[in-house]
Amino acid sequence: MKLLEYPDRDLMMLSLANTIAGDLGGFLRRDGHASLCVPGGTTPGPVFDTLSGVDLDWANVAVFLNDERWVPGDSPRSNTRLLRERLLVGRAARARLVPLYAGAARPEDRLEDLSAGLAPHLPISVLLLGMGADMHIASLFPGADRLAEALSDQAPILMALRADAAAEPRITLTAPVLKGAMTTHILITGPEKRAALDRAQGLTLPEAPVRAVLAHATVHWAE
């Protein structure tokens, strides 16, 4: 794990956006295509705002989420909605959004279709993750109903998980897909999450799912 500490959040968000843009540019020049996997929630919004204006070959970038709440795309709870509003605008509007939601009562009903859509874009070129104070990443929550299966090396691309900490069923990339990313960044803010990051290194994987990716990750932190 590499830890980068920043004097303030604004500088961190700008620096991280520029770093991700550089990472994507490298993959585009080398391979002609790239994939960018990002978290939902409001924290990465400023990173998305900057990235959306960067001059990249966005038409050859596939963008998808780490995880999604199983709610329609127009719901205020939808991470996909955040992506459409903050990242897939401006120059980045040309990127391809790979969905993690499809209309169905349960995520299990569409796992096969959604996984097939993701498979051509793996391994992930650039992975950006958040981390909760409970040390979860994506929707790999400690105590989730199928966490052990989702953390195993034999896990499928996507799984549906339910947890007390999540109000809705979630669909999430699994640990082997996240671990397989070619470049990994973790974005955290505040003293509580910094303390959780330090604590995670002494816990088991089910207790601290973030450990699945820490060995190869660069963690970006500001107070």
Question: Main attributes?
Answer:
223 residues, alpha/beta, 7-stranded parallel β-sheet, 8 helices, globular
Which structural class should the secondary elements be placed in? alpha/beta
Mean pLDDT: 97
Major sheet characteristics? 7 strands, parallel
> How many strands in all?
10
Please give the alpha-carbon distance between the first and last residues. Answer: 19 Å
Q: Per DSSP, what share of the residues sits in E-state strands of 2 or more residues? A: 15-25%
Low-pLDDT residue spans: none
What is the helix content? Answer: 25-40%
Arrangement of strands in the largest sheet: 1-10-9-6-2-3-5
What is the chain-wise order of helices and strands?
EHEHEEHEHEHEEHEHHE
Number of helical runs?
Answer: 8
Radius of gyration (CA) equals: 16 Å
